[in-house]
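Notes to self after the call with IL:
- keep both proteins in one doc
- input above output, always
- annotate only the second one for now

Protein 1:
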Amino acid sequence: MFGNYLIGLREGLEASLIVCVLVAYLVKTGRRDALRPVWAGVGVAVGVSLAFGAVLEFGSRELTFEAQELLGGSLSIVAVVLVTWMVFWMRRTARHLKDELHGKLDAALVMGTGALVVTAFLAVGREGLETALFVWASVRASSDGTAAPLAGVLLGLLTAVLLGWLFYRGAVRIDLARFFTWTGGMLVVVAAGVLAYGVHDLQEARFLGCLADKAFDVSAAVPPDSWYGTLLKGVFNFQPNPTVLQVTVWALYLVPTLALFLAPIGSGPSARVKKQKATDEQAEGGASAGTTA
């Protein structure tokens, strides 16, 4: 449940922060008349995201078992790719997200109501579609016949909405860059489990082979129906008897991705610093030449 709570919290908070930035900017600049089209765009984005999730959930039920597994495995891999891109993007742009949104909103205000609706829809809709896909894949991977995974997601989303409101009211001040770094790292671990489960789906769909080649089997020590087995599955999508291919893919994704994600940003000299250094060296060279002359 914790893994799904983290997904709902992380993804929902991104969307909540975007809405807070848009609304706060319009209020502070005296453009309350533009709030209605912004909220309309947010509402459309939420509706499209919910509809997308419903299509994934109910549409797949009409398929054969092999087709369900093929669809589930494929979309799980797509979801991992999107979430991986998202956590890296947010870690890189968290400090400048407000300025970026302000620029887009200024351009939309000049263009009119329709542009405001589209701007809000695109800003929130991207997060909503990514959330719907990854939540569906994660809930499907950690489903144990109960409503706990979905309850975790909903609880995370509600927490994100509450935090977004508190941000808007100025009651909460935290380092967003650090927050997204830590939650992003944990989300990479969750994504690794979703990826491994997606590979297992593709093996069950007979799209990939080696389904019978088990890397290990600790079902006796970690029963899937035990409280700690359920906890491991809910947090890390842990499987007590994974295949060799699952473990290989899990390790090949998790180790380099987590290492790159946790590496310090700008550990080397930036392009701007290099350019400034080159300019200074050129100026010093020109000054030396003038002195010699």
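Protein 2 (the one to annotate):
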Amino acid sequence: MPPTTTAPYPSTTGVSTRILATLLPYHRTTDPAPAPPEAFPHQLRRIGAFVRAGAPVVFTLPGFPCKSPNPAKVLGHLPDEGERLSLRFLDALCARIGRIHPPGARVVVCSDGHVFGDLIGVPDARIDAYTDALRHELTRLDLTHLSVFDLRDVLGDLPYDARRAHVHARYAPPLEALREEVRADAGALALYRGITRFLVEDTAGWPGTRSALQRACRQRAYGVIQRSRAWGALIAEHFPDAVRLSIHPQPVGAPKLGLRLLDAPDAWTTPWHSAALRRADGTWTLLPRREAARSGRLVTRDGRPSHYEERDALSRR
């Protein structure tokens, strides 16, 4: 009987390193300096298992929940050019990985809007419409490396409140444990503050004072993090071998790899909290709708607002 070993074959290591190196230019992190693939052992192990098996590398990406309910930040309730650019980017990354590893790669977009829709004030019907439109875009744009997974794929025809309660009860961490983590860990504190900021910005028509809104959003932020952790645990149960990506900044060496979908001035900005602006030089960025509107003209697609195009210097005079 040949000896057993847990060490990867050299060719597996080389291919896995090249695959990870393809992702690292888009690493979303608050760390000041880029890090080499060797600084990400968790991701190298996960990728290496797929390479060794001769199988497509599977990535899971929680995100693409729904559009922000704040009309000052977004163009509407459905995906627009920001989402289309992001989905094309993910599909192109998978195609590039396929040139390194012939079995290829795929990304499962784990749309999480239903998981905490009640906490962010977005109706479930609107979340359904957003996710259905995402699936339509994958077909229309022929993005064959991508798929969408959401709460409807998990708990069938249960009412959404019952689905949320089930996921929370089974997977969410205790609130006090989460509070202690936020007090003790700088990364957890940054996430808590970032989500609190988004909740404050996204709340429209608040009848009370600003300080009361901030208190309410601080409380809801814990709920959002609890549900997000629960969704992550559920995803891990359904896709146990996948390489976990994140739309939030992640430190070097973390179990999740933060991935920047599009250029934005803020590391926390996503297509569903902003509008896409095409600069005069042809590059793209994400900005709150109000800011993008000051810089460009509105472009429509299929009768709906899509993005902004920057006016050249002459037309802005």
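Annotation: The two ends are 79 Å apart (CA to CA). Residues 1-10, 313-317 have pLDDT under 50 and may be disordered.
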